[in-house]
Every structure is written in C-alpha cells, then in structure tokens.
Amino acid sequence: xxxxxxxxxxxxxxxxDVCFFDGELRYVGKFAHRELPRLExxxxxxxxxxxxxxxxxxxxxxxAELLRPEDVPLETSGIDKGKVGIDRLLxxxxxxxxxxxxxxxxxxxxxxxxDLAVDGVYMGGFITLGLLSSLKCLHERAELLPELSLEKVxxxxxxxxxxxxxxxxxxxTSSYIAYCKERWxxxxxxxxxxxxxxxxxxxxxxxxxxxxxxxxRSMLNLAGFL
Length: 226
Prior knowledge:
Blueprint: E1 6-11, E2 16-21, E3 25-31, E4 43-48, H1 54-60, E5 65-66, H2 86-98, E6 103-108, E7 111-118, E8 121-129, H3 131-141, H4 161-188, E9 193-197, E10 209-210, H5 214-222
Parallel strand pairs: 1-4, 4-5, 6-9, 9-10
Antiparallel strand pairs: 1-2, 2-3, 6-7, 7-8
C-alpha cells in the first residue's frame, strides 16, 4: 500500500514554501504566489497569512485545509488567538511540542517575529521589519544607498557602504535577539531555549537551534502525522 502523501504549504507575504511528507519530510521549494505548481497529494495542509491569495489557492487545491487560529491548541496568557497570525501560532505550537516548554522563537521572514512561551504558555512577542525588508526600505528611502542581497557580514565597523549596511543589520538583529533573551530570562527567572526558523535564520544559527521547516513539522504534528 502506498504511503499517504501530505503536502504542506506555508503561504507568506512574499512567496509560498512547499514540503511534502510520505513518512519523511522533504522540502520541495519556494515559489512565487502565481507560480505554485499543482502537485499530487492525498492531503494538503495550509498556513496562510495572505487572505487575498486564498481563492486562487482553493482553485488550485480545492480540498486544501486552511488552518485557522482556533485549530491550534495553544494556551495563552490572555492573548486573543484570533488576532495572532496563524504562522506565529503554528510555529509556537511546534516549538512547544517538539523542543521546549520554555522557549523564545525567532521567525525570519518579511517580518522579524520574536515570540515567547513560558511553562508551555504563549506570553506574546514583538514584530519588526525582516532583514530583506530592512535593506529594501533603506534602498527605497535613501537615494544613495544601493539595493543589496542579504548575506552575513560580521564587521567590527563598516568601512564601505556594503559592510556598513550589512554589518549594521547583522549587529542590530543579533543584539536585539540577545537583548530579548537576556531581559526575559531575568524577568521570568528561567533559562529559555532559543529556536530560529525561516530562511534567513541560517545567518544566525550560531545563536541557538535552527529549524527552517518548523511550520511544516507543526502542521504535520497538528494533523497527527508526526
């Protein structure tokens, strides 16, 4: 008997990340919204933060299951889950189920999201500009600053435009994450596991654990496949 083939789609603001699971999780690729292929699957699970894309997605995959906040069994400290992005909820659910009950989760995407759970309870978090979004903003708002590709530059001090922009961005992001961790550990008097996810998280994986496919594992775990 053939194993069930489950497709997981992470629909972000800029693109769609695709995985499939047939006993083993495999990364298919990243696609522009309108270039998502029709792939054969027994079941399709979707996390989407782009409501305007959902009618197109349902045409492509009529039986897709679009996960909603109420589908995620996550205890919060009084936070209304209906007002939190499904990607944040799923990532936190997976982090708690697969890693630790005391955890800081940093998600790298269009936005940079830092979320906290203590004793298995979601406490809240912060949302700031993502790395590529920050570079794009600088380029668009400052006429003399170039458009740069994202790469890791650990410069003690910038000596040209490239090292000043990329080195500054890396220093800013790593310092921000370290600040949140130190502040929350002091406040809650707990050692907190640091978990990174999202493609750009690879640049900071020396700071903690890195799971680029966390949201896909989360969807599969929620559906009972992992």
